[in-house]
Amino acid sequence: MNKVVSSFVPATGFDIFLPWYDLAVRLLARQTRMHENVSRIVSQRLQKLRFETSEESSGVHVVDVGCGSGTLLAGMRQRDDLNLTGIDVDARMLQQAKQKPGTDSINWIAAPSWETTLPAASAQVVTCTLLMHHLDDESKSRTLSEAFRISVPGGAIVLADFAHPASWLAWLRFQAVRVVDGRLNTAANLDGRLPEMLGAAGWQKVEEEFVLATPLGTVRGYTATKMSA
Ligand SMILES: C[S@@+](CC[C@H](N)C(=O)[O-])C[C@H]1O[C@@H](n2cnc3c(N)ncnc32)[C@H](O)[C@@H]1O
Question: Which helix (H) or strand (E) covers residue 142, if one does?
Answer without folding.
Answer: helix 137-150
